[in-house]
């Protein structure tokens, strides 16, 4: 089943999609943008060439469907939006590998006893509105309509952007896919970490996806003249924010497996000779156990308040997004393990530090994930790199998975030989 031609085509398509960008020299493809529309149109044409019918839902997820002989559906997919200055494989690879598997079926004239839906989610990264999984949460019927009033940098609301992208914002809340026919959801994704490379393995099976919290944290002090206001008694909002950034770092360092990042900070009025009157920052907090993450989040909220008080400032704390840790389905994961074993490779199991669409789709059906090795674990960076041979393995494993599911009718295989290994 190993098909070098398929892998080469996936690599070419990742290159082609990597050129569809809002900016000429870097990959930037936010939700609802003209380039997102072009990426969807391009992928839709490939889907149709592979014998699929295509449609889109209210949020703008692209769905390709390869009909089976019975009334059941397996969903494969990932996302087509990007971070700013992104790599070419994050998300995109998963959609392209899924498409390659369907293409192989189509080329051989094979119909499975279930349909295969390939979903290209329209927003996973949250670049435009600072909230992730807009696409997959809508698909899963878990869209939070309070997000519709969020604004992007230009002041456009999510509601306006959804409408301009061709959807009905008022319908989003009830736009989830019906799950009666679903066998499950499998997502191929680059690992975005160094574990598989260290193990010398092209692919691995994901055990769980870390939960995460995204918070907007604001400090409000008092703006003033940088030359005339004495240091004593200043209410410098950026100093409070800076102190909080270091607190975030030390808090995460003290907790095993926790990661926390302040990736954005802005000040008002934002001039060299004015004491910052306001500072606003992001906070991204992740952990594989929800209870630990919630404890850290509460601790940091308390610290933000204490820092503000000690500096005569006020603070704002707005939780923008929370996603629970999601274990993957043991049966579907074991079947992926079996598919890997059948290729002659050993099965490595690892948790995901990054969030993925699969975590949202878990509200709808069983989910599983296959990670693909990426060079030095680098991601969210134009240096993101995967080997064509590894892509070939991923296509092979996913094609075998389809064949195993076709034999089984349902994912009920449990591997005896594989074992849990922590990264
Ligand atoms: Zn991704």
In short:
The chain is of the alpha+beta class and 423 residues long.
Description:
This protein is an alpha+beta fold. It is 34% helix and 22% strand. The strands form three sheets. Strands 1, 2, 3, 4, 5, 6, 14, 15 and 16 form a nine-stranded mixed sheet that branches. It is elongated. Residues 79, 90-91, 124, 189 line the site of zinc ion.
Based on the model shown, name its key terms.
single chain; 423 residues; alpha+beta; 9-stranded mixed β-sheet; 5-stranded antiparallel β-sheet; 11 helices; 16 strands; disordered C terminus; binds zinc ion
Oligomeric state, counting identical vs distinct chains: single chain
**Structure annotation, total helices:** 11
Instruction: Tell the overall outline.
Output: elongated
Give the ligands present.
zinc ion
Write the layout of secondary structure elements.
Blueprint: H1 4-18, H2 34-49, E1 53-56, E2 62-66, E3 73-79, H3 92-108, E4 115-121, H4 134-139, H5 158-164, E5 182-190, H6 195-199, E6 203-209, E7 211-220, E8 224-225, H7 237-253, E9 259-261, E10 265-268, E11 274-275, E12 278-287, H8 290-310, E13 314-323, E14 326-327, H9 330-342, E15 349-352, H10 357-361, E16 367-372, H11 388-408
Parallel strand pairs: 3-4, 3-5, 5-16, 6-15
Antiparallel strand pairs: 1-2, 2-4, 6-14, 6-16, 7-12, 7-13, 8-11, 9-12, 10-12
Helix pairs in contact: 1-3, 1-11, 3-11, 7-8, 9-11
The structure holds zinc ion.
């Amino acid at each position: 089943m190993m098909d070098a031609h398929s892998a080469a085509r996936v690599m070419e398509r990742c290159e082609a999609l990597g050129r569809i960008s809002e900016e000429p020299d870097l990959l930037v493809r936010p939700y609802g943008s003209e380039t997102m529309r072009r990426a969807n149109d391009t992928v839709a044409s490939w889907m149709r060439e592979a014998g699929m019918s295509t449609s889109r839902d209210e949020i703008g997820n692209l769905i390709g469907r390869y009909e089976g002989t019975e009334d059941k559906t397996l969903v494969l997919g990932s996302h087509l939006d990007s971070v700013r200055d992104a790599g070419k494989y994050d998300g995109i690879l998963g959609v392209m590998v899924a498409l390659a598997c369907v293409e192989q079926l189509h080329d051989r004239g094979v119909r499975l006893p279930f349909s295969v839906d390939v979903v290209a989610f329209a927003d996973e990264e949250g670049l435009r509105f600072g909230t992730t999984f807009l696409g997959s949460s809508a698909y899963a019927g878990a869209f939070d309509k309070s997000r519709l009033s969020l604004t992007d940098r230009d002041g456009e609301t999510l509601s306006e952007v959804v409408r301009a992208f061709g959807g009905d914002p008022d319908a989003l809340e009830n736009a989830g896919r019906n799950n009666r026919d679903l066998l499950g959801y499998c997502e191929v994704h680059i690992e975005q970490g160094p574990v598989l490379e260290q193990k010398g393995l092209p692919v691995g099976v994901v055990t769980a996806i870390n939960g995460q919290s995204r918070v907007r944290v604001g400090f409000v002090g008092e703006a003033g003249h940088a030359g005339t206001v004495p240091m004593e008694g200043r209410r410098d909002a950026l100093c409070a924010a800076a102190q909080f950034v270091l607190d975030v770092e030390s808090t995460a360092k003290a907790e095993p497996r926790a990661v926390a990042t302040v990736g954005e900070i802005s000040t008002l009025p934002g001039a060299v000779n004015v004491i910052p009157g306001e500072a606003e920052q992001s906070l991204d907090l992740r952990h594989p156990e929800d209870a630990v993450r919630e404890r850290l989040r509460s601790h940091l909220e308390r610290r933000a308040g204490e820092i503000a008080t000690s500096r005569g400032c006020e603070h704002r704390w707005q939780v923008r997004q929370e996603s629970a840790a999601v274990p993957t389905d043991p049966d579907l994961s074991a079947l992926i393990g079996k598919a890997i074993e059948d290729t002659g490779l050993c099965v490595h199991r690892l948790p995901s530090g990054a969030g993925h669409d699969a975590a949202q789709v878990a509200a709808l059906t069983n989910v599983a994930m296959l990670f693909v090795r990426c060079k030095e674990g680098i991601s969210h960076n134009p240096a993101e790199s995967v080997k064509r041979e590894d892509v070939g393995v991923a296509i092979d494993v996913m094609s075998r998975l389809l064949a195993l599911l076709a034999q089984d009718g349902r994912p009920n295989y449990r591997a005896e030989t594989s074992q849990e290994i922590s990264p």
